[in-house]
Amino acid sequence: MKKQTWAKVFQNEVRNLGKELGINGLTVLNMRDKVQIKVRNESGQTTVIIPFEWSEKKWGDAYTRVRIIATLMQQGHGLLAAANMAQGKAPKKGQDWQDILEKFKKNKTGFGNAISETTWDKDYKACYMAVDVMAAKNPPSDPITLMEVCLKDWKPATRTRQIRARALSQFLTFAVGRCNLSDTWLPPARLKDLIGVVKKGEEPTKIAGDPFDNDQQILDLLASLPTDDQDKKVSKAATQWFNALCLMAELGLRPIEVGKMISKYDPELKRDRWFCTHSKKGGNGSTDPRFVKPLPLIDRDGNLVNWNLFDRFKAGLLPLPENIDGDAFRSYLIRKKHYVELKAAMKREGKNLVNYSFRHYYSLRSHQANIPVGEVCLSMGHSYESHVRAYPYAKASSVDSAFDEGIERLLARVKAKKLLEEKA
């Protein structure tokens, strides 16, 4: 009779706890002299055995554990995950997390809307950091703490921190969904708190970048590079980057695309053309390999600038840097006085000079020349689907003629401006 009395009190306390926390069907039972927690609701029945004896001596401790588990369930965790979390269970150090990361990388780079190895290396560094953190002594026991440790070295509210936070979120979601990690390791649905906000009194870091103001800014920047320096190493690097920046300016390329240009025969136009082999895939859509149409700059005298890039490229006379991406771009130009001064001058005007400024300016000039948006998108490999849908499919011949006509309009625009200046 005494045994039934304490057991009845235990079960009633648990039922009342369920009602208090809004967990319907929460009960405890004797399962082979161990405490079994059961939750029954419209979705079915779930049970878990916790490491406490079904006895008068232990029921108070068992109730404390049940209350902890129920509180975790109220926060959104399932019964099994809450039980594991209450017991302090987590993946083993080191190897388990390393295995999960390897599977995650294979999934991201090999399936679905797969990303490139370059994107993986650039945007998913925080996942390697997470593995190292979990392999260390006294690792975090929850996802938010783990993410905070991996993100703290990046300034709040920056694009880099946002990218790292999203990568960690994807990693942990994959670990739970595909590698049977307890759902207590699911990342928070809201990442804003982890990404952070700009502190009061600070200006937000502008990431997207702005186009150049005019052609001459680019030409002056190029002219400032030490291509004729007496130090051959310096002049060689300057010449290589001069060529790379010319390609970015004239073709509107992403930095990474500079090293992925080839000459390819266009059967529709019946001649060789610039062709970009880069394929960009990601959450915002994909960019397929494409023909690219040059949009030459115009100098201060109103003449088209002819660097003869395509013919030099085909002849093997257009040396380029071995490594061309956003980081390499910044590493080279950030030490150049003219670039630093130009960046500072643009900043004073509320503008941000970045590696994509060449590409942005190509796009701006295309629209100033009244080249249809659909044609611009095709040449640039843009994924602006909302713009492309507004235009009929553009053939290569229409892209080519649209740009040729646009160049003529730009020339006329510059010459008209020059004429007005002379009359003034």
Largest sheet descriptor: 3 strands, antiparallel
> What is the count of DSSP helices, taking H or I runs of 4+ residues?
18
Strand content: 5-15%
Order of helices and strands: HEEEHHHHHHHHHHEEEEEHHHHHHH
Strand line-up of the largest beta sheet: 1-2-3
Give the proportion of residues in helices. 40-55%
Shape: elongated
What is the distance, rounded to the nearest whole angstrom, between the alpha carbons of the first and last residues? 110 Å
* Secondary-structure-derived class: mainly alpha
- Ranges where pLDDT stays below 50 over 5 or more residues in a row are 386-395
Rg over CA atoms, rounded to whole Å, is 31 Å
The overall pLDDT average reads: 84
Beta strands, count: 8
Tell me about this structure.
The structure is a single chain. The chain has 424 residues and is mainly α. The chain is built from 18 helices and eight strands. The protein has a three-stranded antiparallel sheet with strand order 1-2-3. Strand 4 and strand 5 (271-276) form a beta hairpin. Helix 1 (2-21) packs parallel to helix 2, helix 7 runs antiparallel to helix 8 and helix 16 (373-380) packs across helix 18 (396-423). Residues 386-395 have low confidence and may be disordered.
